[in-house]
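Re: beginner question about structure tokens

> Can someone show what the tokenized structure looks like for a real chain? I only ever see the sequence side.

Sure, here's an example I had lying around. Input first:
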Amino acid sequence: MLEIRETFPMSDWPRMLAFIKERYRPDIAVASREFFDWQFRIGTDGNSPILSAWDEGELQGILGYLRWPVFWGAPDQTLDSVWTLYWMVRPEAPKGLGWLLHRKLMERFPVALSVNTSAQGGPLLSAMGWTLEARVPRRLFVFDAEACAPLLGPESSRDALSPFLCAPKTVEVSDTDAAVDGNSYRPDWTLYFERAFGTVRSLDYLRWRYLSHPFFEYRVELRGAPERPAVCVFRVERIFGAAQGLAGRIVDLYHPLDEQGRLDGRAALGAALSELKSAGCAFADFVGSHDAFNATAQEAGGNEEPVERQILPSRLTPLQHLRREQNLAWFASKGLERPALGLIHCTRSDIDGDGPASLNLPDRRGPRMV
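And the corresponding structure tokens:
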């Protein structure tokens, strides 16, 4: 008889690890206990927030979930929400198990979100009333066209880089990690959004998502007063495979919407771009959905990659020219607003959207920035 358990006890980690290796692959990041504990924020109770389906003692399917408050309308009010991640069922599992796991979460939480839904999972979520945004815009900043030339795919040429050329000014950068604390970061969110949708970037969130990441070294640039900081988060990634080099990943960007906020946002982004160029990156990219923060990236020289073709690869470790767009899926209970994508603050790094491609990378942390 099928049994659904609300959490998964980490005392049973060997069974979870065996399932992950079998249904995903042995080198996936979540097969690392260190990464798994970080990703699911394993607490002192020893349980992980994963719905698990069992049949006669055999693990048949899982659906991870992380509870984070979200804005869903007013920027001074939050809702209890859930991000879903690592949804997988065995081929021989009872039909409809994926539907059942999601339904259980949808009954508990008014808002649910997920990034990078698979081609197989998207139709199911759509049938369950989720909204699937197939593409979150990607913007490119090309620092060195010559270094980018070997990275170009078969559908791009050197001339295609011209609209994305960016020459950031050399600016002073901050001593990042030490600056992100309760003294420097206590934003008044009513300054950032008129209507707000997306994960609340609280100090707790920043500390977990960026400053305590087990594999990546993120940098955080802050500009402005503590009640209204502009924030840009970024890292360096080492490219390997058919070509080598360095690339920058701008994984979060937000700022107040008034004139001073926009100036501070451009300053924070400019500092990040300057540091990435100085580190030797051939280019940087930014994946984000919010119209206001995309406008700031545009003003800094980050033009949007065309919808119809990829200019520079997004998969770099190893280099692959497969077209992959970040997507966003979300569900809101009856009576809640259904916003356009441009009103939602979602970036590459939301929850599990920016992670190592493999445990076996030669330099999975990337070069150290100084």
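Each token stands for a local structural state, so reading them left to right follows the chain. The CA atoms of residues 115 and 353 lie 6 Å apart.
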